[in-house]
Amino acid sequence: MNDFLATDYRILGFMLYEELSGKILKAYFTVLSTLGTGFLESVYENALCIELDELGVSYERHC
């Protein structure tokens, strides 16, 4: 019975974060396809923050 409950929680967790995960992945792929490779990490971070803002995703920047 414990295995059944664990499975239920995994499914519920997936459903709860499916929309958020989709937005994060969309932002990531937009940045990657727009900028390509070769930039400093800070450039990608700034671009990702812009995309997340446009998608309405809240976040905290690292120091």
Give a brief description.
This protein is mostly helical and 63 residues long. It has helices spanning 2-35, 41-55. The protein has one domain.
Distinctive features:
0% strand, GxxExxY, single chain, 63 residues, 2 helices, mainly alpha
Model description:
The chain is mostly helical and 63 residues long. The protein has one domain. The protein contains two helices and no strands. Helix 1 crosses helix 2. The chain is elongated, with a radius of gyration of 16 Å.
Average pLDDT confidence is: 85
Strand content: under 5%
Structural class: mainly alpha
Largest sheet: none
Subunit organisation of the chains: single chain
- The H-and-E topology, N to C, reads as HH
Q: Based on Cα principal axes, name the global outline.
A: elongated
The total of helices stands at 2
Q: What is the strand tally? A: 0
Instruction: Tell me the Rg in angstroms.
Output: 16 Å
